[in-house]
Amino acid sequence: MKNKQLIECVPNFSEGRDMNIIKQITNEIELVEGVRLIDVDPGHATNRTVVTMVGTPNEVCEAAFRAVKKAAELIDMSKHKGAHPRFGATDVCPLIPVANITMDETVEYARKLAKRIGEELGIGIFCYEFAAFEEKRRNLANCRSGEYEALPKRLKDPAWKPDFGPAVFNPKSGVTAVGARNFLVAYNINLNTTSTRRANAVAFDIREKGRPQRVGNPLTGKKALDEKGNEIWIPGSLKACKAIGWFIDEFGIAQISINLTDITVTPLHIAFEETNKKAQERGLRVTGSELVGVVPLKAMLDAGRYFLHKQNRSTGIADSEIIKIAVKSMGLDELYPFDPKKKIIEYILEDDNQKKLIDMTLAGFIRETASESPAPGGGSISAAMGAMGVSLATMVANLSAHKAGWDERWEEYSNWADKGKVYMDQLLKLVDEDTNAFNKIMDALGLPKGSDEEKSARKKAIQDATLYAIEIPYRVMELSLQSMEVMKAMAEIGNPNSVSDAGVGALAARSAVMGAYLNVKINAQGLENKEKVALYISNGEGIVKKAQQTEEEIMGIVNSKITL
Predict the structure, then answer these.
(1) Residue-range domains of the chain with CATH
(2) pTM of the model
Protein backbone atom coordinates (compact mmCIF):
# COMPACT_ATOMS: atom_id res chain seq x y z
CA MET A 1 0.00 0.00 0.00
CA LYS A 2 3.00 2.26 0.63
CA ASN A 3 3.75 2.85 -3.05
CA LYS A 4 0.16 3.23 -4.24
CA GLN A 5 -1.31 6.61 -5.03
CA LEU A 6 -3.81 7.48 -2.31
CA ILE A 7 -6.32 10.30 -2.05
CA GLU A 8 -8.84 11.24 0.59
CA CYS A 9 -12.34 12.44 -0.19
CA VAL A 10 -14.48 14.28 2.38
CA PRO A 11 -17.97 14.82 0.92
CA ASN A 12 -20.43 16.77 3.07
CA PHE A 13 -24.06 15.70 2.64
CA SER A 14 -27.00 17.92 3.63
CA GLU A 15 -28.57 15.36 5.95
CA GLY A 16 -27.50 14.87 9.55
CA ARG A 17 -30.62 13.54 11.25
CA ASP A 18 -32.04 10.62 9.29
CA MET A 19 -29.57 7.77 9.81
CA ASN A 20 -31.41 5.63 7.26
CA ILE A 21 -30.63 8.13 4.49
CA ILE A 22 -27.04 8.54 5.69
CA LYS A 23 -26.52 4.77 5.73
CA GLN A 24 -27.87 4.37 2.19
CA ILE A 25 -25.35 6.97 1.00
CA THR A 26 -22.37 5.42 2.80
CA ASN A 27 -23.39 1.95 1.59
CA GLU A 28 -22.61 3.14 -1.94
CA ILE A 29 -19.07 3.98 -0.84
CA GLU A 30 -18.51 0.64 0.86
CA LEU A 31 -19.48 -1.23 -2.31
CA VAL A 32 -16.42 0.09 -4.18
CA GLU A 33 -13.33 -2.10 -3.88
CA GLY A 34 -10.12 -0.16 -3.21
CA VAL A 35 -11.85 2.41 -1.00
CA ARG A 36 -12.06 2.43 2.79
CA LEU A 37 -14.79 4.35 4.62
CA ILE A 38 -12.86 5.98 7.48
CA ASP A 39 -15.42 8.10 9.29
CA VAL A 40 -19.09 9.15 9.23
CA ASP A 41 -19.86 12.22 11.37
CA PRO A 42 -23.51 13.34 11.37
CA GLY A 43 -24.53 16.64 13.02
CA HIS A 44 -28.09 17.24 14.19
CA ALA A 45 -27.89 21.03 14.54
CA THR A 46 -26.12 21.47 11.21
CA ASN A 47 -28.27 18.78 9.55
CA ARG A 48 -25.12 17.75 7.75
CA THR A 49 -22.94 14.65 7.63
CA VAL A 50 -19.20 14.72 6.96
CA VAL A 51 -17.94 11.49 5.42
CA THR A 52 -14.28 10.54 5.07
CA MET A 53 -13.04 7.91 2.62
CA VAL A 54 -9.56 7.00 1.42
CA GLY A 55 -8.26 4.87 -1.42
CA THR A 56 -6.77 4.80 -4.89
CA PRO A 57 -7.81 7.78 -7.08
CA ASN A 58 -10.07 6.17 -9.70
CA GLU A 59 -11.84 4.09 -7.10
CA VAL A 60 -12.36 7.04 -4.74
CA CYS A 61 -13.83 9.07 -7.61
CA GLU A 62 -16.17 6.19 -8.44
CA ALA A 63 -17.29 5.91 -4.80
CA ALA A 64 -17.78 9.68 -4.60
CA PHE A 65 -19.88 9.69 -7.77
CA ARG A 66 -22.12 6.90 -6.47
CA ALA A 67 -22.55 8.68 -3.12
CA VAL A 68 -23.42 11.99 -4.83
CA LYS A 69 -25.93 10.15 -7.03
CA LYS A 70 -27.58 8.48 -4.06
CA ALA A 71 -27.70 11.78 -2.13
CA ALA A 72 -29.41 13.44 -5.11
CA GLU A 73 -32.05 10.68 -5.04
CA LEU A 74 -32.71 10.82 -1.29
CA ILE A 75 -32.21 14.43 -0.15
CA ASP A 76 -34.67 17.22 -1.00
CA MET A 77 -32.94 20.57 -0.57
CA SER A 78 -36.23 22.46 -0.82
CA LYS A 79 -37.04 21.11 2.67
CA HIS A 80 -33.57 21.42 4.20
CA LYS A 81 -32.87 23.49 7.30
CA GLY A 82 -29.58 23.55 9.21
CA ALA A 83 -27.07 25.74 11.01
CA HIS A 84 -24.26 25.22 8.48
CA PRO A 85 -23.98 27.08 5.16
CA ARG A 86 -25.07 24.81 2.26
CA PHE A 87 -26.27 24.91 -1.33
CA GLY A 88 -26.63 21.29 -2.39
CA ALA A 89 -27.65 17.77 -1.40
CA THR A 90 -23.95 17.01 -1.66
CA ASP A 91 -22.71 20.39 -0.54
CA VAL A 92 -18.98 19.96 -1.06
CA CYS A 93 -16.82 17.11 -2.33
CA PRO A 94 -13.09 17.84 -1.94
CA LEU A 95 -10.29 15.48 -3.00
CA ILE A 96 -7.08 15.57 -0.96
CA PRO A 97 -3.70 14.09 -1.95
CA VAL A 98 -2.45 11.66 0.71
CA ALA A 99 0.44 9.60 -0.69
CA ASN A 100 2.49 9.32 -3.90
CA ILE A 101 0.33 11.83 -5.77
CA THR A 102 0.77 15.53 -6.54
CA MET A 103 -1.77 18.28 -6.14
CA ASP A 104 -1.78 18.80 -9.92
CA GLU A 105 -2.74 15.15 -10.42
CA THR A 106 -5.43 15.45 -7.74
CA VAL A 107 -6.85 18.52 -9.51
CA GLU A 108 -7.19 16.46 -12.71
CA TYR A 109 -9.16 13.80 -10.85
CA ALA A 110 -11.36 16.45 -9.18
CA ARG A 111 -12.21 18.10 -12.49
CA LYS A 112 -12.91 14.75 -14.12
CA LEU A 113 -15.25 13.87 -11.24
CA ALA A 114 -16.91 17.29 -11.47
CA LYS A 115 -17.49 16.84 -15.21
CA ARG A 116 -19.01 13.39 -14.72
CA ILE A 117 -21.39 14.54 -11.97
CA GLY A 118 -22.44 17.55 -14.02
CA GLU A 119 -23.04 15.64 -17.24
CA GLU A 120 -24.46 12.34 -15.94
CA LEU A 121 -26.47 13.59 -12.96
CA GLY A 122 -27.45 17.03 -14.30
CA ILE A 123 -26.14 18.83 -11.22
CA GLY A 124 -24.41 22.21 -11.52
CA ILE A 125 -20.80 21.98 -10.31
CA PHE A 126 -18.51 24.73 -9.05
CA CYS A 127 -14.82 23.81 -8.91
CA TYR A 128 -13.07 25.39 -5.92
CA GLU A 129 -9.71 25.66 -4.14
CA PHE A 130 -6.90 24.18 -6.28
CA ALA A 131 -9.42 22.81 -8.81
CA ALA A 132 -10.88 26.27 -9.52
CA PHE A 133 -10.72 27.55 -13.10
CA GLU A 134 -10.73 31.20 -11.96
CA GLU A 135 -9.41 32.97 -8.89
CA LYS A 136 -12.76 34.15 -7.47
CA ARG A 137 -13.94 30.52 -7.27
CA ARG A 138 -10.94 29.32 -5.23
CA ASN A 139 -12.72 30.42 -2.05
CA LEU A 140 -15.63 28.14 -1.21
CA ALA A 141 -17.44 30.98 0.57
CA ASN A 142 -17.58 32.93 -2.69
CA CYS A 143 -19.05 29.95 -4.54
CA ARG A 144 -21.61 29.36 -1.81
CA SER A 145 -22.54 33.02 -1.25
CA GLY A 146 -26.25 33.35 -0.55
CA GLU A 147 -26.49 29.56 -0.17
CA TYR A 148 -29.28 27.42 -1.61
CA GLU A 149 -31.85 30.21 -1.42
CA ALA A 150 -29.81 32.46 -3.76
CA LEU A 151 -29.40 29.82 -6.50
CA PRO A 152 -32.45 30.70 -8.69
CA LYS A 153 -31.11 34.21 -9.24
CA ARG A 154 -27.39 33.41 -9.16
CA LEU A 155 -27.53 30.68 -11.79
CA LYS A 156 -28.90 33.21 -14.27
CA ASP A 157 -25.81 35.39 -13.81
CA PRO A 158 -23.20 34.52 -16.49
CA ALA A 159 -20.45 35.32 -13.95
CA TRP A 160 -21.65 32.40 -11.83
CA LYS A 161 -22.37 29.83 -14.51
CA PRO A 162 -21.40 26.40 -13.15
CA ASP A 163 -18.09 24.97 -14.40
CA PHE A 164 -19.90 21.74 -15.31
CA GLY A 165 -23.52 20.73 -15.55
CA PRO A 166 -26.57 22.87 -16.33
CA ALA A 167 -26.93 26.51 -15.31
CA VAL A 168 -30.50 25.70 -14.32
CA PHE A 169 -31.90 25.72 -10.78
CA ASN A 170 -32.47 22.17 -9.54
CA PRO A 171 -34.73 22.64 -6.48
CA LYS A 172 -34.23 19.08 -5.22
CA SER A 173 -30.44 18.69 -5.50
CA GLY A 174 -29.17 22.27 -5.64
CA VAL A 175 -25.56 22.50 -6.78
CA THR A 176 -22.29 20.96 -5.57
CA ALA A 177 -18.75 22.28 -5.07
CA VAL A 178 -16.05 19.82 -6.12
CA GLY A 179 -12.50 20.76 -5.24
CA ALA A 180 -8.96 19.74 -4.48
CA ARG A 181 -7.32 20.90 -1.28
CA ASN A 182 -4.45 20.04 0.98
CA PHE A 183 -4.77 17.54 3.78
CA LEU A 184 -6.14 19.09 6.95
CA VAL A 185 -4.92 17.75 10.29
CA ALA A 186 -6.97 18.38 13.42
CA TYR A 187 -4.50 18.45 16.28
CA ASN A 188 -4.92 19.38 19.96
CA ILE A 189 -2.02 20.30 22.23
CA ASN A 190 -2.38 19.80 26.00
CA LEU A 191 -1.27 22.41 28.54
CA ASN A 192 -0.57 22.24 32.27
CA THR A 193 -3.32 24.78 32.97
CA THR A 194 -7.08 24.93 33.32
CA SER A 195 -7.21 28.51 32.00
CA THR A 196 -8.93 28.91 28.65
CA ARG A 197 -7.75 32.53 28.51
CA ARG A 198 -4.10 31.47 28.79
CA ALA A 199 -4.58 28.72 26.22
CA ASN A 200 -6.14 31.27 23.88
CA ALA A 201 -3.16 33.57 24.34
CA VAL A 202 -0.83 30.83 23.08
CA ALA A 203 -3.28 29.98 20.27
CA PHE A 204 -3.23 33.62 19.11
CA ASP A 205 0.59 33.58 19.27
CA ILE A 206 0.83 30.72 16.78
CA ARG A 207 -2.19 30.95 14.48
CA GLU A 208 -1.65 32.62 11.11
CA LYS A 209 -4.45 35.12 11.70
CA GLY A 210 -2.84 36.22 14.97
CA ARG A 211 -4.58 38.76 17.21
CA PRO A 212 -5.87 42.35 16.95
CA GLN A 213 -3.32 45.04 17.70
CA ARG A 214 -4.35 47.14 20.70
CA VAL A 215 -3.55 50.69 21.73
CA GLY A 216 -1.89 50.92 25.12
CA ASN A 217 -2.51 47.79 27.21
CA PRO A 218 -2.07 44.72 24.96
CA LEU A 219 -4.91 42.95 26.77
CA THR A 220 -7.49 45.62 27.54
CA GLY A 221 -6.60 48.51 25.22
CA LYS A 222 -8.79 49.53 22.32
CA LYS A 223 -8.27 47.75 19.01
CA ALA A 224 -5.95 49.68 16.70
CA LEU A 225 -7.43 50.84 13.39
CA ASP A 226 -5.79 51.83 10.11
CA GLU A 227 -6.57 55.04 8.18
CA LYS A 228 -9.61 53.34 6.62
CA GLY A 229 -11.01 52.28 9.97
CA ASN A 230 -10.12 48.60 9.58
CA GLU A 231 -8.73 46.59 12.49
CA ILE A 232 -4.96 46.04 12.44
CA TRP A 233 -3.92 42.47 13.14
CA ILE A 234 -0.60 41.11 14.42
CA PRO A 235 -0.03 37.82 12.55
CA GLY A 236 0.94 34.68 14.45
CA SER A 237 4.10 32.64 13.89
CA LEU A 238 2.70 29.67 11.93
CA LYS A 239 1.37 29.74 8.38
CA ALA A 240 -1.58 27.52 7.35
CA CYS A 241 -2.56 27.26 11.01
CA LYS A 242 -5.87 28.00 12.72
CA ALA A 243 -6.01 27.73 16.51
CA ILE A 244 -8.14 28.47 19.55
CA GLY A 245 -7.92 27.65 23.26
CA TRP A 246 -10.52 25.67 25.17
CA PHE A 247 -11.07 23.64 28.34
CA ILE A 248 -11.75 19.89 28.17
CA ASP A 249 -13.96 18.75 31.04
CA GLU A 250 -13.22 15.07 30.44
CA PHE A 251 -9.49 15.49 31.12
CA GLY A 252 -9.56 18.59 33.31
CA ILE A 253 -7.06 20.49 31.17
CA ALA A 254 -6.94 23.37 28.71
CA GLN A 255 -5.96 22.56 25.14
CA ILE A 256 -4.98 24.48 22.07
CA SER A 257 -7.20 23.18 19.28
CA ILE A 258 -5.33 23.46 15.99
CA ASN A 259 -6.31 22.94 12.37
CA LEU A 260 -3.25 22.57 10.16
CA THR A 261 -4.64 23.38 6.72
CA ASP A 262 -1.46 22.52 4.82
CA ILE A 263 1.04 20.20 6.50
CA THR A 264 3.50 20.80 3.68
CA VAL A 265 3.73 24.39 4.99
CA THR A 266 3.47 23.74 8.74
CA PRO A 267 4.08 20.07 9.58
CA LEU A 268 2.77 18.43 12.74
CA HIS A 269 6.10 18.50 14.58
CA ILE A 270 6.73 22.17 13.81
CA ALA A 271 3.29 23.07 15.21
CA PHE A 272 4.14 21.12 18.36
CA GLU A 273 7.56 22.72 18.77
CA GLU A 274 6.34 26.27 18.17
CA THR A 275 3.42 25.83 20.58
CA ASN A 276 5.82 24.46 23.18
CA LYS A 277 8.06 27.50 22.73
CA LYS A 278 5.21 30.03 22.98
CA ALA A 279 3.72 28.24 26.00
CA GLN A 280 7.05 28.40 27.85
CA GLU A 281 7.32 32.11 27.11
CA ARG A 282 4.00 32.51 28.99
CA GLY A 283 5.04 30.32 31.93
CA LEU A 284 3.09 27.30 30.70
CA ARG A 285 4.20 23.81 29.75
CA VAL A 286 3.03 21.50 27.01
CA THR A 287 2.34 18.06 28.51
CA GLY A 288 1.33 16.16 25.38
CA SER A 289 -0.95 16.28 22.38
CA GLU A 290 -3.85 14.56 20.68
CA LEU A 291 -4.41 13.72 17.04
CA VAL A 292 -8.08 14.01 16.04
CA GLY A 293 -8.96 11.81 13.07
CA VAL A 294 -6.29 10.37 10.80
CA VAL A 295 -2.92 11.41 9.40
CA PRO A 296 -0.75 10.39 6.44
CA LEU A 297 2.21 8.11 7.19
CA LYS A 298 4.65 10.69 5.85
CA ALA A 299 3.60 13.24 8.49
CA MET A 300 4.45 10.80 11.28
CA LEU A 301 7.72 9.70 9.68
CA ASP A 302 8.76 13.32 9.12
CA ALA A 303 8.05 14.05 12.79
CA GLY A 304 9.98 11.02 14.01
CA ARG A 305 12.98 11.86 11.82
CA TYR A 306 12.90 15.48 13.02
CA PHE A 307 13.18 14.43 16.67
CA LEU A 308 15.83 11.80 15.89
CA HIS A 309 17.88 14.48 14.13
CA LYS A 310 17.60 16.69 17.22
CA GLN A 311 19.19 13.81 19.16
CA ASN A 312 21.89 13.35 16.49
CA ARG A 313 20.56 9.84 15.92
CA SER A 314 20.34 7.85 12.70
CA THR A 315 16.96 7.76 10.93
CA GLY A 316 17.71 4.59 8.94
CA ILE A 317 15.60 2.45 11.25
CA ALA A 318 12.24 0.67 10.91
CA ASP A 319 9.20 2.87 10.29
CA SER A 320 7.59 1.47 13.44
CA GLU A 321 10.51 2.75 15.52
CA ILE A 322 10.41 6.17 13.86
CA ILE A 323 6.69 6.41 14.62
CA LYS A 324 7.33 5.48 18.28
CA ILE A 325 9.81 8.35 18.54
CA ALA A 326 7.21 10.73 17.06
CA VAL A 327 4.50 9.54 19.45
CA LYS A 328 6.71 9.85 22.54
CA SER A 329 8.26 13.17 21.48
CA MET A 330 4.88 14.84 20.98
CA GLY A 331 3.11 12.99 23.80
CA LEU A 332 0.48 11.66 21.43
CA ASP A 333 -0.33 8.89 23.90
CA GLU A 334 -0.87 11.13 26.94
CA LEU A 335 -4.68 11.03 26.92
CA TYR A 336 -5.19 7.60 25.38
CA PRO A 337 -3.07 4.99 23.56
CA PHE A 338 -1.95 5.92 20.06
CA ASP A 339 -2.64 3.01 17.70
CA PRO A 340 -0.90 3.50 14.31
CA LYS A 341 -3.28 1.02 12.68
CA LYS A 342 -6.22 3.27 13.56
CA LYS A 343 -4.56 6.64 13.09
CA ILE A 344 -2.29 6.35 10.04
CA ILE A 345 -4.11 6.25 6.72
CA GLU A 346 -1.82 3.81 4.92
CA TYR A 347 -2.03 1.35 7.83
CA ILE A 348 -5.81 1.65 8.02
CA LEU A 349 -5.98 0.61 4.37
CA GLU A 350 -3.82 -2.48 4.79
CA ASP A 351 -5.69 -5.74 4.39
CA ASP A 352 -5.16 -7.67 7.62
CA ASN A 353 -6.61 -10.78 5.98
CA GLN A 354 -4.03 -10.82 3.19
CA LYS A 355 -1.33 -13.36 3.98
CA LYS A 356 2.13 -11.90 3.38
CA LEU A 357 5.38 -13.85 3.33
CA ILE A 358 7.30 -10.97 4.89
CA ASP A 359 4.96 -10.92 7.89
CA MET A 360 5.71 -14.57 8.71
CA THR A 361 8.27 -15.64 11.28
CA LEU A 362 11.60 -16.61 9.75
CA ALA A 363 10.91 -20.25 10.60
CA GLY A 364 7.43 -19.98 9.11
CA PHE A 365 8.80 -18.51 5.87
CA ILE A 366 11.41 -21.26 5.58
CA ARG A 367 8.84 -23.99 6.22
CA GLU A 368 6.43 -22.42 3.72
CA THR A 369 9.21 -22.46 1.13
CA ALA A 370 10.01 -26.10 1.91
CA SER A 371 6.39 -27.21 1.42
CA GLU A 372 5.17 -28.93 -1.74
CA SER A 373 3.70 -25.66 -3.07
CA PRO A 374 5.81 -24.22 -5.96
CA ALA A 375 5.63 -20.71 -4.48
CA PRO A 376 7.41 -19.07 -2.77
CA GLY A 377 10.38 -20.19 -4.79
CA GLY A 378 13.78 -19.02 -5.94
CA GLY A 379 12.58 -15.53 -6.88
CA SER A 380 11.21 -14.79 -3.42
CA ILE A 381 14.29 -16.30 -1.78
CA SER A 382 16.54 -14.12 -3.97
CA ALA A 383 14.61 -10.99 -2.96
CA ALA A 384 14.85 -12.07 0.69
CA MET A 385 18.61 -12.59 0.35
CA GLY A 386 18.96 -9.13 -1.17
CA ALA A 387 16.92 -7.57 1.65
CA MET A 388 18.93 -9.41 4.29
CA GLY A 389 22.20 -8.39 2.64
CA VAL A 390 21.44 -4.68 2.65
CA SER A 391 19.92 -4.91 6.14
CA LEU A 392 23.38 -5.91 7.39
CA ALA A 393 24.98 -2.91 5.72
CA THR A 394 22.25 -0.68 7.17
CA MET A 395 22.99 -2.10 10.60
CA VAL A 396 26.68 -1.21 10.21
CA ALA A 397 25.70 2.35 9.25
CA ASN A 398 23.45 2.66 12.31
CA LEU A 399 26.14 1.27 14.61
CA SER A 400 28.66 3.69 13.12
CA ALA A 401 26.27 6.64 13.60
CA HIS A 402 26.45 6.34 17.39
CA LYS A 403 29.91 4.86 17.84
CA ALA A 404 31.70 6.61 20.71
CA GLY A 405 34.10 9.20 19.38
CA TRP A 406 32.39 9.42 15.98
CA ASP A 407 29.63 11.78 17.08
CA GLU A 408 30.48 14.46 14.52
CA ARG A 409 29.88 11.95 11.70
CA TRP A 410 26.40 10.77 12.79
CA GLU A 411 24.63 12.46 9.86
CA GLU A 412 26.96 10.92 7.28
CA TYR A 413 26.18 7.45 8.58
CA SER A 414 22.49 8.26 9.00
CA ASN A 415 22.36 9.12 5.29
CA TRP A 416 23.90 5.75 4.43
CA ALA A 417 21.43 3.99 6.74
CA ASP A 418 18.54 5.82 5.07
CA LYS A 419 19.80 4.72 1.66
CA GLY A 420 20.12 1.12 2.82
CA LYS A 421 16.62 1.18 4.32
CA VAL A 422 15.14 2.29 0.96
CA TYR A 423 16.76 -0.67 -0.82
CA MET A 424 15.69 -3.03 1.97
CA ASP A 425 12.04 -1.91 1.92
CA GLN A 426 11.83 -2.26 -1.87
CA LEU A 427 13.38 -5.74 -1.84
CA LEU A 428 11.06 -6.86 0.97
CA LYS A 429 8.10 -5.83 -1.17
CA LEU A 430 9.46 -7.98 -4.02
CA VAL A 431 9.55 -11.08 -1.79
CA ASP A 432 5.76 -11.22 -2.00
CA GLU A 433 5.55 -9.70 -5.47
CA ASP A 434 7.55 -12.57 -6.98
CA THR A 435 4.98 -15.05 -5.63
CA ASN A 436 2.18 -12.80 -6.91
CA ALA A 437 3.83 -12.88 -10.34
CA PHE A 438 3.80 -16.69 -10.31
CA ASN A 439 0.12 -16.66 -9.30
CA LYS A 440 -0.66 -14.34 -12.23
CA ILE A 441 0.72 -16.95 -14.62
CA MET A 442 -1.33 -19.71 -12.98
CA ASP A 443 -4.47 -17.55 -13.16
CA ALA A 444 -3.83 -16.85 -16.85
CA LEU A 445 -3.32 -20.55 -17.58
CA GLY A 446 -6.68 -21.25 -15.96
CA LEU A 447 -8.62 -18.92 -18.28
CA PRO A 448 -11.14 -20.51 -20.70
CA LYS A 449 -9.88 -21.38 -24.20
CA GLY A 450 -13.00 -22.37 -26.10
CA SER A 451 -13.75 -19.65 -28.63
CA ASP A 452 -11.17 -17.81 -30.74
CA GLU A 453 -11.81 -14.69 -28.68
CA GLU A 454 -11.21 -16.59 -25.44
CA LYS A 455 -8.05 -18.16 -26.82
CA SER A 456 -6.75 -14.76 -27.85
CA ALA A 457 -7.53 -13.23 -24.45
CA ARG A 458 -5.92 -16.21 -22.67
CA LYS A 459 -2.78 -16.00 -24.79
CA LYS A 460 -2.43 -12.27 -24.11
CA ALA A 461 -2.96 -12.81 -20.38
CA ILE A 462 -0.28 -15.52 -20.31
CA GLN A 463 2.21 -13.33 -22.16
CA ASP A 464 1.48 -10.31 -19.91
CA ALA A 465 1.88 -12.46 -16.80
CA THR A 466 5.10 -14.00 -18.14
CA LEU A 467 6.57 -10.58 -18.81
CA TYR A 468 5.67 -9.53 -15.27
CA ALA A 469 7.30 -12.69 -13.91
CA ILE A 470 10.50 -11.59 -15.69
CA GLU A 471 10.33 -7.96 -14.60
CA ILE A 472 10.08 -8.77 -10.88
CA PRO A 473 13.30 -10.83 -10.54
CA TYR A 474 15.03 -8.41 -12.92
CA ARG A 475 14.11 -5.61 -10.50
CA VAL A 476 15.55 -7.74 -7.68
CA MET A 477 18.79 -7.91 -9.67
CA GLU A 478 18.93 -4.15 -10.16
CA LEU A 479 18.17 -3.28 -6.55
CA SER A 480 20.56 -5.87 -5.12
CA LEU A 481 23.40 -4.58 -7.28
CA GLN A 482 22.62 -0.96 -6.40
CA SER A 483 22.48 -1.83 -2.70
CA MET A 484 26.10 -2.99 -2.81
CA GLU A 485 27.16 0.66 -2.73
CA VAL A 486 26.10 0.66 0.93
CA MET A 487 28.09 -2.53 1.69
CA LYS A 488 31.16 -1.09 0.01
CA ALA A 489 30.91 2.21 1.86
CA MET A 490 30.47 0.46 5.20
CA ALA A 491 33.41 -1.85 4.49
CA GLU A 492 35.54 1.21 3.78
CA ILE A 493 34.39 3.74 6.39
CA GLY A 494 32.02 1.90 8.75
CA ASN A 495 32.61 0.67 12.28
CA PRO A 496 35.65 -1.64 11.89
CA ASN A 497 34.23 -4.06 14.48
CA SER A 498 31.36 -4.78 12.02
CA VAL A 499 33.33 -5.02 8.79
CA SER A 500 32.54 -8.76 8.52
CA ASP A 501 28.81 -7.87 8.46
CA ALA A 502 29.41 -5.64 5.43
CA GLY A 503 31.16 -8.62 3.80
CA VAL A 504 28.31 -11.03 4.51
CA GLY A 505 25.92 -8.41 3.12
CA ALA A 506 27.92 -8.27 -0.11
CA LEU A 507 27.89 -12.06 -0.44
CA ALA A 508 24.10 -12.10 0.07
CA ALA A 509 23.57 -9.31 -2.48
CA ARG A 510 25.76 -11.07 -5.06
CA SER A 511 23.81 -14.30 -4.52
CA ALA A 512 20.52 -12.40 -4.79
CA VAL A 513 21.57 -11.06 -8.19
CA MET A 514 22.61 -14.48 -9.47
CA GLY A 515 19.55 -16.23 -8.05
CA ALA A 516 17.15 -13.66 -9.49
CA TYR A 517 18.88 -13.99 -12.88
CA LEU A 518 18.08 -17.70 -12.94
CA ASN A 519 14.42 -16.74 -12.54
CA VAL A 520 14.66 -14.18 -15.32
CA LYS A 521 16.09 -16.83 -17.67
CA ILE A 522 13.62 -19.61 -16.85
CA ASN A 523 10.61 -17.28 -17.17
CA ALA A 524 11.99 -15.79 -20.40
CA GLN A 525 11.58 -19.22 -22.03
CA GLY A 526 7.84 -18.62 -22.17
CA LEU A 527 7.98 -15.11 -23.65
CA GLU A 528 7.25 -14.91 -27.37
CA ASN A 529 8.73 -11.43 -27.80
CA LYS A 530 12.31 -12.52 -28.54
CA GLU A 531 13.61 -8.93 -28.73
CA LYS A 532 12.62 -8.38 -25.11
CA VAL A 533 14.07 -11.75 -24.16
CA ALA A 534 17.41 -10.83 -25.74
CA LEU A 535 17.40 -7.46 -23.95
CA TYR A 536 16.71 -8.95 -20.52
CA ILE A 537 19.33 -11.67 -21.00
CA SER A 538 21.99 -9.25 -22.27
CA ASN A 539 21.34 -6.70 -19.51
CA GLY A 540 21.03 -9.45 -16.92
CA GLU A 541 24.44 -10.88 -17.78
CA GLY A 542 25.91 -7.39 -17.38
CA ILE A 543 24.33 -7.02 -13.92
CA VAL A 544 25.63 -10.42 -12.82
CA LYS A 545 29.15 -9.58 -13.98
CA LYS A 546 29.06 -6.19 -12.23
CA ALA A 547 27.74 -7.78 -9.00
CA GLN A 548 30.53 -10.37 -9.01
CA GLN A 549 33.16 -7.68 -9.56
CA THR A 550 31.73 -5.49 -6.81
CA GLU A 551 31.57 -8.44 -4.40
CA GLU A 552 35.26 -9.16 -5.05
CA GLU A 553 36.15 -5.51 -4.37
CA ILE A 554 34.17 -5.46 -1.12
CA MET A 555 35.59 -8.78 0.08
CA GLY A 556 39.08 -7.49 -0.68
CA ILE A 557 38.45 -4.50 1.60
CA VAL A 558 36.88 -6.69 4.29
CA ASN A 559 39.68 -9.26 4.32
CA SER A 560 42.32 -6.53 4.43
CA LYS A 561 40.78 -5.27 7.68
CA ILE A 562 40.49 -8.67 9.36
CA THR A 563 43.96 -9.54 10.63
CA LEU A 564 44.85 -12.82 12.28
Answers:
(1) 6-180 (3.30.990.10), 185-348 (3.30.70.670), 357-561 (1.20.120.680)
(2) 0.81
